[in-house]
Design brief:
The chain has eight helices and seven strands. It is α/β, with parallel strands linked by helices. A seven-stranded mixed β-sheet has the order 1-7-6-2-5-3-4, with helices on both faces. Strand 3, helix 3 and strand 4 form a beta-alpha-beta unit. The termini are far apart.
Length: about 260
């Protein structure tokens, strides 16, 4: 008999769920979590929401935000005026037992879809997932810096966001988040109750004038325009460097030193 607390394991021959399946599965749960956690989050953080009218209510759109804390991915979809989907580390979806099942369902309800982090094929797969979501006319949230800022500065943007915008024609809404690094600093197990956070949404940016997605120059220029808009909203000190994860071996250190395009 199947344990009622856990989803039935798919067979080895079962096809992987499509992006449309993932989005449909999250649909109802998204609103359950939104209306359940939204009032609580408003009570705790008393967020200042500025410029929400800048988010188009329909059609493909990319919310490109700075990234200061783990809770950014909770607040962005909670306070947007339409469903927003984002990618999350695959290990959030792969746990076992009741805890693993709950984590899987919770993150899907937030609008998250799993992705394996890394370079090469993993990075291409992530871009393909995001492209399919945009082509379905939905909104996605991305962090051009690639990962959280550990020192509160705004790092250089990677070109994946610009690539998606130029390839799909989606406009980019820049987002400046303020205060989440104080509400839940890096390394904290639980968020604090006192700091007030701010989410600022800028006007949509059409990046088409930079050129085609196939042009590295166009991707770089479009990325710099996005990061300039985010900086104007967040007011962070500029790092003028990429937010690189610590190199694990000599090959990775060499890759970070040599010129290459950061996706």
């Amino acid at each position: 008999m199947t344990d009622a607390t856990q989803p039935e394991e798919p067979s080895a021959d079962a096809p992987a769920p499509s992006t449309d399946d993932e989005l449909a599965r999250a649909g109802v749960l998204y609103y359950v979590v939104r209306w359940g956690l939204g009032p609580l989050a408003r009570l705790i953080y008393r967020p200042r929401i500025e410029g929400s009218r800048n988010i188009p209510r329909s059609g493909p759109i990319i919310l490109a935000s700075n990234h200061l804390s783990f809770i950014d991915s909770f607040l962005l979809p909670q306070f947007a005026p339409r469903p927003v989907y984002f990618l999350a580390k695959s290990n959030y979806f792969e746990g076992s037992g009741v805890k693993g099942w709950f984590s899987n369902r919770f993150f899907r309800a937030l609008g998250a879809t799993p992705v394996r982090r890394g370079a090469g094929q993993a990075a291409l797969d992530a871009l393909d997932q995001q492209r399919k979501i945009l082509e379905a006319g939905r909104a996605i949230a991305l962090y051009p810096e690639g990962t959280r800022s550990l020192d509160g500065r705004l790092y250089k943007g990677r070109t994946g966001v610009a690539f998606l915008a130029l390839e799909t024609g989606a406009k980019v809404v820049p987002v400046g988040i303020v205060g989440t690094n104080e509400a839940m600093p890096v390394g904290a197990s639980w968020p604090k109750l006192s700091p007030r956070v701010t989410l600022r949404y800028g006007e949509p940016i059409d990046l088409a004038h930079h050129g085609p997605a196939s042009s590295g120059r166009a991707r770089r220029a479009a990325t710099d325009e996005i990061m300039s808009a985010i900086h104007a909203l967040s007011g962070q000190e500029l790092a003028n460097a990429y937010n690189e994860s610590p190199a694990q071996n000599p090959v990775e250190r060499l890759k970070q030193v040599l010129p290459h395009e950061r996706r």
